[in-house]
Amino acid sequence: MLLSIEGIDGAGKNTLVHRLQEELEVEVSVLAFPRYEESIHAQLAREALYGHMGDMVDSAYAMATLFALDRYGAKEKLLQAAESSGLLILDRYVASNAAYSMARLGDDGVADWVYDLEYGRLGLPKPDLQIFLDTDVELAASRARGREAADDTRERDQYEKDSNLQSRTAAAYRRLAQADWAGQWIATAEVDMIVRALKDRLGV
């Protein structure tokens, strides 16, 4: 089973991942995107987000393509997990590309382009369930600022520092969830509800 967890910066995705690892009585593995430690495409995207790739970051399509190619580099692992009896939790997946691109361009139609690119041309497997951790935008921003202040290695990038972009992205995620874009969604800020829903689905 593939489970993707989506949300803006500071939403609490990593905390939710650890909670699920602790409480779900099944084999659980985690794959976080972007894969900055091992993917050249993710590394180039990160350089762009910190202003080191000229005007590349100005193109929503260029950035979305780099993030898509990062996922394509993990395609074999994703396909194997989709066929296995275990659970692979994806910390961000294709919907993140759709939501951020929608927010940047002010055009929901770009979600169709992301869908065709990643699920069509690149052949990535769809998740069995997508969770949008719908944390209050101000609370998420406060967490992100606190994380940055406490850790010199966690400087926020251009997307993360743009509070208006984060707010628009959260709204875009809600629209994707309401439309069941690319499959079934759960959209809530209630972590306990998410854990219960997963336990019910997995029968544990």
> Outline, from the CA principal axes?
globular
Order of SSEs, N→C?
EHEHHHEHHEHHHEH
Structural class: alpha/beta
The CATH topology, please?
A: Rossmann fold
- Uncertain spans, ≥5 residues at pLDDT below 50? none
Major beta sheet, strand line-up: 2-3-1-4-5
Task: Supply the CATH superfamily name.
Answer: P-loop containing nucleotide triphosphate hydrolases
Quantity of strands, as a count: 5
Which CATH architecture would you pick? Answer: 3-Layer(aba) Sandwich
Estimated helix fraction: 55-70%
Number of domains: 1
Radius of gyration: 16 Å
Strand content: 5-15%
Quote the distance from N terminus to C terminus: 14 Å
How would you state the average pLDDT, rounded?
Answer: 92
CATH class, named Alpha Beta
Largest sheet: 5 strands, parallel
Tally of DSSP helical segments: 10
Describe, in short, the structure shown.
It is built from ten helices and five strands, in the order βαβαααβααβαααβα. The protein has about 200 residues and is an alpha/beta fold. α5 packs antiparallel against α6.
